[in-house]
Write a structure and sequence with these properties.
Layout (H helix, E strand, L loop, with lengths): L1 H25 L1 E2 L8 E7 L3 H9 L7 E8 L2 E6 L2 E6 H4 L2 E3 L1
Antiparallel strand pairs: 1-6, 2-3, 2-6, 3-4, 4-5
């Protein structure tokens, strides 16, 4: 009986890990999102100063962002009702789903 319970727990843990793995495999940098597409922010990478800067602009986990276009190395986005341009290097740090 104890062996059956341990096996059931192991199966549950494996199942609960798989969706996270699948999600992280499909996350892409904001810089690679096609114009006209709306995505959700999964995570923000980079140094504390960079993450803080992006957070102050509204780039936080779970926020929805639309890519408007790309212009001269900048990514034009709409987030929280505001359009703005961020550099491609900043957009590379924003992982989306």
């Amino acid at each position: 009986m104890a062996t059956e319970n341990a096996a059931a727990i192991s199966r549950t843990n494996i199942k609960s890990r798989n969706p996270q793995t699948i999600i992280s495999q499909h996350a892409i940098p904001l810089s690679m999102v096609d114009a006209g597409r709306k995505v959700s922010i999964k995570s923000i990478g980079g140094r504390d100063k960079t993450r803080s800067f992006l957070c102050n602009l509204g780039f936080v986990e779970g926020a929805e962002v639309s890519v408007i276009s790309e212009l001269e190395g900048n990514v034009i986005v709409a987030i929280k009702g505001t359009r703005m341009a961020i550099s491609k290097s900043m957009a590379n740090r924003v992982m989306t789903l």
